[in-house]
Amino acid sequence: MERYIQAMQNSGADAWEIIDTKTQSWQFYFIGHALDQNRATDVEHITLKAYKQSADGQYMGEATAAVSPTESTENINQIARDLVDHASLVQNKVYALNQPSAASPIPHAATSLKQEAETYLKAMQSVQETVDEDINSYEVFVNLNKRRLITSTGIDHTDTYPTSMLDIIVNARRDNHEIELSRLYHAGTCQPLQLKEDIEELMRYGKDRLLASPTPSIDNCPVVFSTDAALQIYSYFLDNLNAAYKVRGISHFNIDEAITHEAHGDLLTLKTLRYLDGSPANFAYDIEGAPIEDATLIDHGIVKRFIGNRMFSQYLGLDQSFIVSNWCVEGGTATETSIRSGACLEVVEFSDFQVDSMTGDLFGEIRLAYYRDGKGGITPVTGGSISGSMLDNLNSMQMTQASRQYASAVIPKATRLNKLTVAGES
Question: pLDDT tens, 337-362?
Answer without folding.
Answer: 999 999 999 999 999 999 999 999 99
